[in-house]
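Hello forum,

I keep getting stuck at the same step: I have a sequence, I want structure tokens, and every attempt I make locally crashes halfway through. Rather than fight my setup again tonight, could one of you with a working pipeline run this one for me? It's a single chain of 253 residues.
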Amino acid sequence: MQSEQFERIQDFWSRRQQLTQHELAEFYQRTIAALAPCRPREAASLGDTLADLRHHFFIEKVLGSDSTSVPLHIGALFLYFKRFIIDQLRKLPDGGGEDETACELHALDDYAQPLRDYQLTPQQVRAAAEVFITTLSGDLILLLRHCGCGGMPVRELAEQIASAHYHGGKLGLVHKQQGDADSAGRQVVQPAHRTTLLGAWVLNLLKLRVGDSLSAQDIDAAQIVLDILCLAALDQHVDPASTQPNPNERPPA
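Reply #2:
Ran it on my machine without issues. Output:
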């Protein structure tokens, strides 16, 4: 989608409670069309078609919300839609629909004990994470927030980031797997990931060498470091004029 076309959606979104009937119809058509490329795999578990889900999303989460948040880019709109679908799954009688890729983030103090053997405190890891983020380009920060921490497939940011898959590989994106809380930590310290930006940073912070044979304790610590990095990435302030996404953006509640 061209930037000027999405800017039209942003304008409607910010004025959605005061739109004329003609503007409302255009807002609906543009939003539904913008969501057409977004096909979250979670939707397959719902009985509704994607067209129905887009319609319900617009009515419930766009028009029906009092939130003042406006998506800053098409990827953020996709993330809103995906989280709407996950919310629908969680309402099913079997309680399904857990977001298998999103980080489960805890308070920093919860991480204190496991980090002591590495001569680290959660606060030190948080400070190191904030410094690490400043070394990343805008594209890599975007990938970290929405793909590394939010679980969005890299391909959904392909329109915003040239060579998105290449940059994702350079960063060393890894995701938690369903039912396996430490899977991302285990992946990021595998030999194939140890020379990526994330892998090298995690190993260096934990004072582990590339050639070391890593223990289950090391993997747990690596996962904690990744979790704290996500906290830092999602909490980072973003200039509203920036083309980077706002880490405080969330789907309207």
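Residues 10 and 70 are 6 Å apart (CA to CA). If your local run keeps crashing, start a new thread with the error log.
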